Amino acid sequence: MGVTVRQKVKGKGKPWWVFIAHNGKRKSIRVGDRTAAEALAGKIQEKLKTGELQITPDKKIPTFGEYVRKWLDTYGETHLKYSTIKGYDSIMRIHLGPLMDRQINQIARTEIKDLIYTKLKDGLAPATVSRIKALISGVLSHALEDGLVLANPASRLGRQIKGKDRKADINPLTREEAKALLETLAEHYHRYYPFFLCALRTGMRLGELRGLEWGDIDFRGGFIEVRRGYVKGQITTPKNRKGRRVDMSPQLADTLKELRTERKREALARGWGEVPERVFVNEAGQVIDEWNLRARVFYKALTKAGMRHMRIHDLRHTFASFLIQNGESLAYVRDQLGHKSIQITVDIYGHLVPGANRQAVAKLDDTFSPLADSQAGCV
After folding, report:
1. Fewer CB atoms inside 10 Å of the end CB: C or N, the chain?
2. Cα 123 to chain center, whole Å?
3. Is residue 370 part of a domain?
4. Of 57-61, 120-124, 138-142, 312-316, which range is least confident?
5. Which residue has the higher pLDDT, 207 or 168?
6. From residue 264, how far is each of 209, 279, 289 by CA, in Å?
């Protein structure tokens, strides 16, 4: 039995390999630098001694591309959301070209790090690079479980990606801007006014608004049940896979009641037969097209209102900022937005809490004041 470490081709920057000879079987693994190769060799040596590892050199090793496609067809179809699978398909097609044809057990840690650095240098957002890394690491973790690799070379590489501050990515409207936008929509894009009012009064995501159905609205209770989203032409669960209940303001409730009445008249006039189950539909009674909504309604409304450019998603941030300005707790904001944890809410919106830092410092004080006591003794 033997485990050795060396370069096949000597020279600076050339990869290091771990060579295994055990029970008449041989195997070689391309690792990267010498330190990583020696560390892996030590682990292999221990596992061979205890019988935890068996060498199977005759086993056909798939390429990364072959394995990731099989992984998506099996694990992905049963555990991942449709939108996540489509996102991974896009990552594979656009970003993982250098890895797709490599045998999965020959991918070195240095290659993955180089890929990460290249994408960051190319100007990709840290969040996008994190998704790329997450896909690679997730696939290699499953390959490790299947015995195709002896270690996951993508593990613990998240620290290589310096993400930007979440709060730097929010761009909420002021109350005056929100009022101007709604007035412009009501005047020039009346059909879409209820959609954007709902966005500003509930903080629902774009996909959740497009997937909203009349049966989700409880006018008597004054709330909306967020049960689904409509993303990339597919019905999906909300982002964190859990539904939530959001409170409905009187203004929004009245607007949606009027919309329901109008929709009944429209269904009769256009010969739809019945009112569409979706709350927000286009002139044909179908789900609103995302591109048209952005380009032909939202961006044009911003221009007509003389406002700065922003994203539809910033309406969600606007909703949260208004709640905080009104003195609502971050826990309530979390519940209304459907965040997975309070930490996400704090990271994004904590700095908006009025006087939060000053109040925290004030709590450090006690009632003792040596200056006041000394002055009192002089009287």
Report:
1. C
2. 19
3. no
4. 57-61
5. 207
6. 20, 11, 21
Task: Please check whether residue 368 lies inside any domain of the structure.
Answer: no
Chain segment 34-82, per-residue pLDDT in tens: 888 888 888 888 888 777 776 665 457 899 999 999 998 888 888 888 8
CATH of the domain at 216: 1.10.443.10
Q: Is residue 197 part of a domain?
A: yes
- Asked whether the beta carbons of 129 and 116 are under 8 A apart, the reply is yes
**Is residue 335 assigned to a domain?**
yes
- Provide the domain limits for residue 37: 2-50
Neighbours of 375 (CB within 10 A): 10
Give the CATH number of the domain where residue 116 resides.
1.10.150.130
Sign of CA dihedral 116, 118, 119, 124: positive
CB 31 within 8 A of CB 40: yes
Residue with tokens 């090793």: 61
What is the dihedral sign for C-alpha 317, 345, 86, 216?
negative
